[in-house]
Amino acid sequence: MNAPAPPFVRFTFSFLLIAALPCALAASATPAPAATPAATPAAKPAAAKPAAATPAAAAPPCEACHGAHGEGMAAAHVPRIARQSADYLKKQLDDYAAGTRDNPIMANFAKALSEQQRAKFAARYAAMSAPYIPQPKPPIAVHLARGHQLAFQGDEAKRVQACNACHGPDGVGVPHAAPYLAGQSAEFLASALKAFKDGTRKNDAGELMRSVAERLDDADIAAVTGYFASVDLSNH
Amino acid sequence: MVQRLKEVDVVVIGVGMVGSIVAKELAAAGYKVVGLERGQTRFTVPEFQSPAVHDELRFDIRKALMQDNTREPVTFRNQGSQVALPVRRWESFLPGTGLGGSMVHWNGQTYRFQATDFQLATRTRERYGKNFLDPDVTIQDWGVTYDDLEPHYDRFEYLLGTSGKAGNIKGRIQAGGDPHESPRFRDYPTPPQKEHFQGAMFRKAAGSLGYHPFPQPSSNLSQPYTNPEGVKLNACVFCGFCERYACEHYAKSVPQTVILPVLLANPNFELRTGCQVQRIDLDSTKKHATGVTYIDAVGRVFEQPASLVITSTFAINNIRMLLLSGIGKPYDPATGHGVVGRNYAYQTMSTVASFFDEDVIINPFMASGASGTLINDFAGDNFDHSGLGFIGGAYIGAVNTNGRPIQYHPVPPGTPAWGKGWKQAVVKHYNHTVMFSCHGSSVSQRQNYCDLDPTYRDAWGQPVLRITFDFPPNDIKMAAYVTAKAVEIGKAMGAKQVVGSPRKGPYTVTQYQTTHNTGGTVMGDDPKTSVVNRYLQSWDVPNVFVIGASNYPQNATWNPTGTLGALTYWAIDALKNKYLKNPGRLVSA
Amino acid sequence: MDKVTRRSFVTTVGAATVAPASALLPLAAAAAPAKTANIAEPPKTTYLFFNAAEVLFIEAACERLIPADESGPGALGAGVPNYLDKQLGGAWGAGERLYRSGPWQPGTPSQGYQLPFTPAELFHASLRAINRDLDAHGTPFHDMSPEAQDAYLKSLESGAHDFDGVPSGVFFDMLLKMSIEGFFSDPVYGGNRNMVAWRMIGFPGAYADYYEAIDRHGVKFEREPMSLAEDGHGNIHVRQDIPANL
């Protein structure tokens, strides 16, 4: 499970859970009709719930945490998902739904969606744009240098290959292989690496991320995540 | 001006996989070991990192990881009646260099030979009679048996972490593995790699014909693995840049990823790079080595005295080392006398291309160096050769390793070599073709041998190795037979067009085939037909051991590396438990 | 499938792009143009190795070897002459990885290339002889019809010409081989511009993690090709100094 959010945000989540949508009900196994409008004509029978269950302001629940433009919420370790590769987002939603990736909040949302609907959400966020958000406290030069080294070269003594080998030039991501890291929040990246390292996140094919994370110490994690968070690939 | 250094216990010439394993074992046993490597150090980080390493022009076409042929070439001719000329660019075979040697850039295809292979002469006579073979064929028994080597095969596979499925565990045939294999003690250390689409198509087709397909044993690992040396490897991601390249992911079993961290941490071992060994030095009796002479990168000449010398360079370079050192009698094909350079062999490779319609998407670029599915039904002596007029065989498999386009752009016969027709055919077939390999045995014959070239010299002024080789008629017949079988499998896949390209002579150095050069320092029981005894100890100079595929009396159906690993551990066992406790001849001549 | 290019990776968002909350947004069209279009004109190359007369032959000849057609650009559009120019003018042309010591004999076909020439020397010598030959007998190569050009190239290929002892087939083989290299190699070397050749066949390039995709048997792999020399904005940084060793 992801690192626990600070109390303020947890409260906010609870508020949203209650006030927003049927899909957010923890115990509910029924798909949420409001999550997808009439754009899905061949909806599964269970999806055709009466509209009475749906409040009028049916904003997709994603925005509440992932932001209006998919920019995420760094302090809460909620990742930026705007422009993330659609297949990666879809896989994460599938994994949440199946329990392969462990997160009760995301599991609820994902289970409430059909596979088709997950694909649509993934495509939606893959097409979104959000501005680059600089870190409030950028890393110091020596950490940036270490992060850059891990990104471009790796570390032989620790037997860690270059992140960019899979994650693409400047960490821009490689479709069907690895998500982007550039411009992702350092907090989220660190929580992800730690989850891979302690085994609470296990949905990486071939244990590829677990193999890397287990060899990184806290200083390396801080350096490489701070580095990638500092990579601004927006057009100038 | 030669500088004489302080004596050490052991000198290891060539720090590739063999040299690394030998050095590690002897250093761990307390001996002072110096490893002399002509190339440079290199490690996964930074030298093997991608994307830079995924450069087909540099590594595939221009052979960036290979032995420097501008300074140390070989010469070649098909027949003794011809003049041997330099191989001015590597193509047919690609010897490596640098720390880790050729196994840095290998494909990871990891096989065992079968029990019959080690007594090939005896078994062939027993099964087919004395007169079955061409009189020119000089196959021999090895002096060791499969049972001798089995625990060492196991040890090597577990060092590497090889991914595979056993077919025969202690006599019990295992579903999904190769039923023809000789018994193994236990299964592979990791499960087989994922099968690519070509492999799956092959498996169905071969199975439908009653054959026994199984996954290729791969030292590009299917999952993370910690070997008995405590070194950990990652899972391979099927990048399709395997042979001729180094692996960026710590996923291919190479010395750097399986043993060098342990070796290099042992203070009993000293690595010296940039050191070109000129010869093994002998005393006046010529029956005892005093050490080696080498020239460093700056041109200084050193004598390194040692009690024991191991030559573990690439196979053909082992032959040359003995010839330059005057160890053993050089082979003379005219008289048939002598042994060093005798029984040089190779590998007999054929291909089959199966062309499909454009709705069949192959994605050839998704593969590891040992991806694929194959059959051993036509390998070795697994089928009755009565009346066929040849011995040996090939494994047949959809074992394609890559889709790198400069070299891989299959087109059907009749396609022009260039122009619009060529381009259209390339587009039409690139992603819709399945390639089979027929990977065949190579018998030794009296006309195929190695010696020192009379004309051409290396950059240090020493004669280069001369290779005289052509495919024996036996192997051409074998290639025709197995390729026809492979074509049937292609048809059973439902391809629109199946084209077999059986190996035909003459052997050419201009086309890549394999880097499976074997023989020349053959092992055996009889000093008249072998250079080393069954423990890989020189018959002539007992404190010299020669370890390499140069020990093979002939080459079997399968890739030589697995067997070389087994021989390495077998020799180390003899060194540690017999020789070093009581130096001297281990086998009376 | 994700066809959005990375050049529009992160953009400034204005209020107008905020979607109505209740509607599912349609998939946004690819915001940036694809990195390549069909290149109508040959790229402008600054030639450093080939002289003007050689350029005329090389550009015309390469385009016959690998012509533009419905499947995409040919040698000119891909920058193959540029690749040749830079490689022949560099270490490879000067004989990198070539054993250059004598004595020299023609040898058998099995023994391969046995001439003393470096690639650069072979090209200059052969092109000099070709241009001299064609000047003396009428039409320069670049003025010939495509059919006549093909016929002339075939005559080179068959070894019908002797260029002061150099069989023309040896030159032709090297020209064809290097043209294919220039077409299919990573664009870092100055050919395969915008990865047109890789796009043509569907080769994804230097970033190559297929751990999950390999399970999707028979499914087309939809991803833009990627060069080892591209940065996070998709710009390719061409280099002329990559050695043929580690």
Brief account:
Chain B is an alpha/beta fold and 589 residues long. In chain B, 22% of the residues lie in helices and 19% in strands.
Please, could you describe this protein's structure?
The complex is a heterotrimer of chains A (236), B (589) and C (246). Chain A is globular and about 45 Å long. A two-stranded antiparallel sheet of chain A has the order 1-2. Chain A contains 10 helices and 2 strands. Chain A folds into 2 domains: 114 residues, Orthogonal Bundle (Cytochrome Bc1 Complex, Chain D, domain 2), CATH 1.10.760.10; 89 residues, Orthogonal Bundle (Cytochrome Bc1 Complex, Chain D, domain 2), CATH 1.10.760. Helices cover 42% and strands 2% of the residues of chain A. The longest helix of chain A is centred in the first third of the chain and has 13 residues. In chain A, a hairpin with a 4-residue loop joins strand 1 and strand 2. With 236 residues, chain A is mainly alpha-helical. The N and C termini of chain A lie far apart (37 Å). With 589 residues, chain B is an alpha/beta fold. Chain B has one domain: FAD/NAD(P)-binding domain (3-Layer(bba) Sandwich). In chain B, helix 5 crosses helix 12 and helix 6 packs across helix 11. Chain B starts with a strand and ends in a 10-residue tail after the last helix. In chain C, strand 1 and strand 2 form a beta hairpin. The N terminus of chain C is likely disordered. Chain C is built from 7 helices and 2 strands, in the order H-H-H-H-H-E-E-H-H. Chain C starts with 51 loop residues before the first helix and ends in a 45-residue tail after the last helix. Chain C has a two-stranded antiparallel ribbon. Chain C has a domain of 133 residues. Chain C is an all-alpha fold and 246 residues long. At the A-C interface, helix 5 of A face loops of C.
Descriptive labels:
heterotrimer; A: 236 residues; mainly alpha; Cytochrome Bc1 Complex, Chain D, domain 2; 2 domains; 42% helix; disordered N terminus; B: 589 residues; 24 strands
Strand content of chain C: under 5%
Radius of gyration of chain A: 18 Å
Distance between the termini of chain C: 37 Å
Total E-strand runs of chain A: 2
Supply the helix-strand structural class of chain C: mainly alpha
Number of domains of chain A: 2
The amount of beta strand of chain A, in percent, is under 5%
* CATH H-level superfamily of the largest domain in chain A: Cytochrome c-like domain
What's the helical proportion of residues of chain C?
Answer: 25-40%
* Protein chains sharing the most extensive interface: B-C, 73 and 67 residues
- The Cα radius of gyration of chain C reads 23 Å
Q: Sketch the major β-sheet of chain C.
A: 2 strands, antiparallel
Largest sheet of chain A: 2 strands, antiparallel
